[in-house]
Amino acid sequence: LQAHGGITGLIVVSVILRCFRLNDWPGQLIGDECWYVQDARVILGFPLANFKNLPAHPLSGLDPNSEHGPLAKLIMALFMKLFGDNGTAWRAPSVILGTLGIWMLYLIVQRLGAGKRTALFAAFVLAFDNLSFQHGRIAMLDIYLTSFILLGSWLYLAEFYELAGLAFALSALCKINGLLGLGAIIMFDMMVGFRSAWQGSWRATLRWPVLRPTWRKWRPAVITTAFFTAFFLTMLGGLDNYFTEFKGPFEHLWHMVTYHTGLTHHGVSTGNESSPLQWFFDQGTMDYFVWTWSANGKATHMIFHAALNEYVVWAAPFALFFAGQRAWTDSSKLGMFALASFVGNFGPMFLAWAILSRTSYIFYMVPAVPSFACAIALVAEKIPRSVRWFYSLLLVYAFFFNFPFRYFGY
Amino acid sequence: MHALTLIATLAALAADPAPAAAPVHPPPPHPVHPATLNVPGINGHMTDPTHKLSDDAKKEVEDRLTKIAEDTHIDLAGWITNAPDDQVVALGNEAYKRWSIGVWWDNGVFFAFPAAGQVHIIQDPAKPELTPEEVTKLLAADKPSNDYQKRIDDLEVATRAMVEPKTQNRARPWGTNRPQRANVFLAAAAAIALAAIALSFRRRKPTAIPIAPATLPTTPDPPATPTEPPAPTAAP
């Protein structure tokens, strides 16, 4: 316990906070739960208790939400089958996976050569970021995606390349963006290889003998990609034939690609939509759920507000610049990982918005938050302890300020 | 010639302004073209555009019909029309389609109330939930002399009693699309997963996570000692 007391305590606190009012309000659906919980009900043949966002073919027993892989909804359905059609059951997998993600990040940072204190700080930032926290307790797909990416990244760094491929495949089976996690870790490997091959100048480094592809250099990426591809396609084919109308994985993949590239919005963002640039200014936040009730003539409002922790997102750009500098000057693997993870997970979302006018929402930022946590932890290594504590207090203050289940009496 | 005929006709009409008896048309055959039917928008399980139910009664009816749908997966719905009895079947059939009665559930039973007279029971002809005998019993249970709330309550209780036993053990679909084909894919996925586990653990055994020096005492590295030059070998 002495060796692992810090992370144990953090995980216990995280679980308690995530479970606090987990079933509030009974029967009500938060954010996009109105899709995924309803989908799970269709798969299970449960009554569709909510009459908003009714899915197509509700009596088919098949996953109506074919724009995403079926795995996350099947996990929700399994918990609902075991524990009943209630909020605790459909949100419990998110609590488990969200907490697993915190632990994985702790292991990743250590695996990258940083000290335990740095690892704990990164895990703390992830645990107390509001967007990760909120998704770590509601039945949406993004925490499944992020946690399986973190699991895959840790397995890759621990040289379990084949298992890493499987973990990334599980992520992509929940949401196709899991592919980006695989790209990010390969990008990290390329950064490490390039930095170690640096010959003092670009010209010298980019010469053929230095960067020539060798099996030793490429083996991790090739093995992981091969197992990812094979496992993803076969699992998708299996789940599709059980739970969707698709006969094979390529048919479903094509549907997902055409569906997602077709979701575009030109002009100023409206409603809950927001642009990726807004997220760095703490804009584009949205209310996942608002509940109003009256008692004794006094109205009370409960708001489940989706937002990043201000002290995470405001620090993130500077911390990422610092991580880039450390990656270059000190060959910091943590810096490279932060950078690769950010570029790999956020970059394609940004490009899709910038080039294709893809509709975007703030929760697309969830997989990028671990990269912020790594970069901020890297900064925290270099700042005085008093400043580090002050920043931690600010983080906790903003966390409780943005806590999703706060009641406002007017 | 035609002009003379027209003038004569007009003169005859002017001399006798009383309208001729309207020709008697037979009632329109069913089904009437849907575009001609005046079906209002749906308003809950029991659509009542003329407010023949009080607000409290309407709420109570809605709650009970919602509960039946949740318990039995059968959508019980209705429409209190102002239409004459001979038009209600056509209107009810059109409303059944437009309002997607039973589409979100296993099946639907629709009560169409005329302005006067007995209720009409509309079902999906492809898969009627109630047998003709049950429909006859329901019609017998409906007393047009009662107020609408009482009539709806009686019909609801009787229908629930008929539907509930049939639906309790009705098989629900569960992953039944193409299980054999799915199993082939899943067997391949399982083989890949097993290979991944075997290869990962064969190539690399898990190592302990390095313990950070902050929590465990570390021994300082011994100072580097200069290597001594090799002893000169004796000349032969």
Write the layout of secondary structure elements.
The complex is a heterodimer of chains A (410) and B (236).
Chain A: H1 5-19, H2 33-44, H3 71-83, H4 87-111, H5 116-127, H6 130-135, H7 142-157, H8 161-174, H9 178-196, H10 202-205, H11 208-211, H12 215-243, H13 249-262, H14 276-279, E1 286-295, E2 298-306, H15 310-313, H16 316-329, H17 333-356, H18 369-382, H19 385-401, E3 406-409
Antiparallel strand pairs in A: 1-2, 2-3
Helix pairs in contact in A: 1-4, 1-5, 2-3, 3-4, 4-5, 4-7, 5-18, 7-8, 7-9, 8-9, 8-12, 9-12, 9-17, 16-17, 16-18, 17-18
Chain B: H1 2-15, E1 46-47, H2 55-72, E2 74-80, H3 85-98, E3 107-113, E4 120-123, H4 132-141, H5 148-167, H6 179-203
Parallel strand pairs in B: 1-2, 2-3
Antiparallel strand pairs in B: 3-4
Compact summary:
Chain A is mostly helical and 410 residues long. Chain A contains 19 helices and 3 strands. Helices cover 63% and strands 6% of the residues of chain A.
Please provide the ordered H/E string of secondary-structure elements of chain B. HEHEHEEHHH
Average pLDDT level of chain B = 75
* Category from helices, strands and their pairing of chain B: alpha/beta
How many β-strand stretches of chain A? 3
Main beta-sheet annotation of chain B: 4 strands, mixed
Oligomer: heterodimer
Q: Please state roughly what percent of the residues of chain A sit in beta strands, choosing from under 5%, 5-15%, 15-25%, 25-35%, 35-45% or over 45%.
A: 5-15%
Order of helices and strands of chain A: HHHHHHHHHHHHHHEEHHHHHE
Label the overall shape of chain A: globular
Tally of helical runs of chain A: 19
Main beta sheet of chain A: strand number and arrangement?
3 strands, antiparallel
Proportion of β residues of chain B? 5-15%
Q: Give the overall silhouette of chain B.
A: elongated
